[in-house]
Amino acid sequence: MAFASKIITCLLILAIYIATPTESHITCGTVSSTMAQCISYLTNGGPLPSSCCVAVKSLNQMAQTTPDRRQVCECLKSAGKEIKGLNIDLVATLPTTCGVSLSYPIGFNTNCDSISI
Fold first, then answer.
1. Could you say which residues form the signal peptide (predicted)?
2. 64-93 burial, b if ≥16 CB within 10 A, otherwise e?
3. What is the pLDDT of residues 8-25, one digit of tens each?
4. What is the C-alpha separation between 72 and 63, in angstroms, rounded?
5. Residue 3: pLDDT above 80?
6. What residues make up the domain containing 84?
């Protein structure tokens, strides 16, 4: 009987380990194409297009695991370095402006590895 309970315990631990996502299923291509509607606003300012906030909310919904959030963070940092004239203040406030609450700051200095859900 003790042997059976040890096997059950091992199987439960294995099931928990397998069920915990360790890799993201979101690609940087998906992040870039989703956020493309925001580039003009983030470089030129002006009125915020509703399509940009739809994109922000969509990306937030896609990234529901810690690995997904970290991947999105890395993708945004990488893409942001390629965009000339990006207004860092607009980038930092975009989630809040669109009604999305994040527990971490958005910016080039964000440590993506520290993000967790």
1. 1-24
2. ebbbbbbbbbbbbeebbeeeeebeeebbee
3. 443 344 444 444 446 888
4. 7
5. no
6. 24-114
In a domain, 77, yes or no: yes
Q: List the CATH number of the domain containing 78.
A: 1.10.110.10
pLDDT in tens, 58-108: 999 999 999 999 999 999 999 999 999 999 999 999 999 999 999 888 888
Residue 110: inside a domain: yes
Cα Rg of the chain, angstroms:
19
pLDDT of residue 111: 94
Asked if residue 13 is part of any domain, the answer here is no
- Asked if residue 30 belongs to a domain, the reply is yes
- Whether 17 and 59 have beta carbons less than 8 Å apart is answered as no
The Cα–Cα gap between 76 and 95 comes to 13
Locus of tokens 């998906």: 30
Integer Cα distance of 68 and 113 in angstroms: 11
Question: Any idea what DSSP says for residue 84?
Answer: T
Q: Take residue 3 and report the two structure tokens written for it.
A: 């042997």
